[in-house]
Structures are given as C-alpha cells and as structure tokens.
Amino acid sequence: MKKESRRILLIESLLAIIVIFTFFIIKGFNMPVYLAILLVPLGLSIWLLGFHQREERASKDVLLTIMIWAILYYLITYILGYFIGFLRTGYSTTLKGILGNVITQTIFIVILEVTRVTLLKKCKYFKPGIVISVIVFSAIEFATKFSLGQINSRLDFLDTVFTVILPILSKNILLTYLAITTSVTNNIVYRFIMELPAYIVPIIPNLGDYLTNTVLTIIPLVLMFSINKSYFSKKEKIKDSRRDLKRRRLGIVVTVALVIVLSIMILLVSGVSRFLALTIGSESMTGTINKGDVVVLDKNDKKVSEGNIIAFRKEGVILVHRVVEIQNIKGVRYYHTKGDYNAERDGWLVEDKDIVGKYKFRLRFIGWPTVKLNEWILGGDN
C-alpha cells in the first residue's frame, strides 16, 4: 500500500507541475500542446498502477441515473430559455470548427478521466490521495479556462470563485466519487452529455452567469447525493430496520426541502419568475425595511399609488423607496419618492419605465452576508 501511495503522489505531483507550468510558463494557451503534455501522466499512471476497467456494482444503474438527470437539466434550462431568451455559444458554428472543438474536447475528457480512474481505483483508502486528486484535476480544468492575469481586484477574485472555481470543483467532486464507486464509462458519459453540446448546439438559454453557474454547482452535488443514497448506502445487515427507514425518509424529506428552497431562491434572485428578491444595502428605509433585509417584489404589479413602496432604477442602481406624491404631466405619470428614514424627498422623479416592481414583503436579516460581502469587495461601508 505504501508503495502504491508513493506512486499515486508522484503522478499527482506531476499533474500539479503541469498546472503550474500552464499558469506561469506557457504564453498563449495551446490545447494540442496541453493534450500532449497530459499524455505523460496518463502513460505513467497506467505503467505504474495498471488500468483495471472493471464494472463496479450498480454501474449501469448509475449510468441511467446520470442520463435522467442530464435530460432533466437540459429540459428545464431550455424551457426557461423559451421564456427569457437564448444567446449564441460563442464557439465556431462551421462544420470544421464544430468537429475541431468536439474532437479536442473528447480527447481532453478521455485523457483526464482514464488518468483519474487509474489513480483513484488504487487509492480508495488513501484519503490524502483522494483530496489531492480533487484539487489537482480541478486546477487542470481551471488552467484551460482562466488566466491568473485576469484577476486584478477582490471583485474579480469573487467573480472567479463563483463563476469558474465552484462549478469546476463541484463537478470534480462528483467525478472523483464516480471514479471510486463505479467505472470510467460513467465519468466519460457524464462529461460528454454535460460539456460537448455547448460545441455543437449554436444557441444556449440566456440564464445569466449567476443562475447558470449556481445550477452547474448544485447539480453534481445533488446527483452525487442521490446516487449514494440510492445505490451505495444500503447495508446488507440492518440491525434496526425501523430506525433505518426513518433515516431514509428523513433524508428524502430534507433533500426535497433543500431542492425546493434552492429552486425558489434561484428563481427569486435571478428574476426569471414574476417575483424578484433584492437585498437592502442602505439605511434609507430603516424602521420599515432595515439594512440586510431581503425584499420580495412583484414585477407585474405596476398599479402604484401614493404610500406604496416600489423598486426603481436610477443611474444603473436599483433603489427601494416609498411613493409620497404622484404627478400627471401631459399624460405621463411622475412619482416623487422618499426613504422613510430620510428627512428629504429624493432629488429626482421616477417614471413608469423606471419601476422594477412593487414591494410585497420582506425577509428580515437574511441578506446580511450579502451586504457584508459587498462592503468587503468595495473596501468600505457603503
């Protein structure tokens, strides 16, 4: 075991060196060169550890589960795209370009997953090797999609974490789990289904970076949890069947509840649905709506009267204030607004086209983490 552990660490160290080489030495990323370099640890892993492609228990059932989840993912996202629109992928739509991208990405996926499975089949009980594997394989993909030179501020760093690092890390946690519990086929099929269509289909749902990457972060973890509960958490001998049944039921209830809550949060924050959630970052409405509260707005309710609280855009910023007076000038309605905590009215007039939505209710305090994070990014207490 010690001998195999040393070999595993040797190969993982080589992969880490490749990542460092890519980040700091290669000028102008070249995918064919990168693929050629990755063949070295692949060959070394097969030579030192051997490649044993055996079907683990429930592999075929897991493969079916993966395909069902993938179909649901595309079904839901493209239905949402029908309502909120689509955008072009940015990849070449010529036959030559499509074939080039698909072939290159296919080779990249196969090399990585065969290397991953070869390593992890030998270190099921070598936990440091598993952790290092997740980090190294995530870094390899990160190196193909991002340059460290793009991070120039804390805002760039946070944006990179949420839009690039978290989805890649989540995916590699799932792939590591699949590599240990099933076969390389499942890893490759999952990546083919989730990654190759982007190079083939010319349009994708315009869900925005936040919603898209939130979904891509959550799906692998939920899928892993679902596979584990369905196929790998059952014991041959159950001492207390009633307690086990209660735990399974509780697990199902918790999972369903989390999925529902996360779905509602995503819909509210993204603005895809009729309702929109906003975090209050100022004290202008203190007493009625406090800093750190989250307000829920109805975007379709535009029947505004004096005394209503509305959200509106001014100079690229969304504000939430109360309507204190309405004027009708030449058939156009103008709204005078004021923060309940402010002594004076706002120094502008709001038109119907500026209104984002009408205030419905608030959720107290749950937006404080967002406020504090925003203040940290801006470097002050704004």
What does this structure look like?
- The chain has 382 residues and is α+β, with helices and mostly antiparallel strands.
- The protein folds into two domains: 2-232, no CATH class; 275-378, Ribbon (Umud Fragment, subunit A).
- Helices cover 58% and strands 14% of the residues.
- The protein is built from eleven helices and nine strands.
- The chain has helices spanning 2-24, 31-49, 59-84, 95-120, 127-145, 154-181, 184-195, 197-200, 208-232, 241-270, 368-378; strands at 86-88, 203-205, 275-279, 294-298, 309-314, 317-329, 332-338, 349-351, 355-363.
- The strands form two sheets. The chain has a seven-stranded antiparallel sheet with strand order 3-4-9-5-6-7-8. A two-stranded antiparallel sheet has the order 1-2.
- A hairpin with a 2-residue loop joins strand 5 (309-314) and strand 6.
- The longest helix has 30 residues, at 241-270.
- It is elongated and about 80 Å long.
- The protein starts with a helix and ends with a helix.
- Residues 235-241 have low confidence and may be disordered.
Which SSEs are present, and which pair or pack?
Blueprint (H helix, E strand, L loop, with lengths): L1 H23 L6 H19 L9 H26 L1 E3 L6 H26 L6 H19 L8 H28 L2 H12 L1 H4 L2 E3 L2 H25 L8 H30 L4 E5 L14 E5 L10 E6 L2 E13 L2 E7 L10 E3 L3 E9 L4 H11 L4
Antiparallel strand pairs: 1-2, 3-4, 4-9, 5-6, 5-9, 6-7, 7-8
Helix pairs in contact: 1-2, 1-5, 2-4, 3-7, 3-9, 4-5, 4-6, 4-7, 5-6, 6-9, 9-10
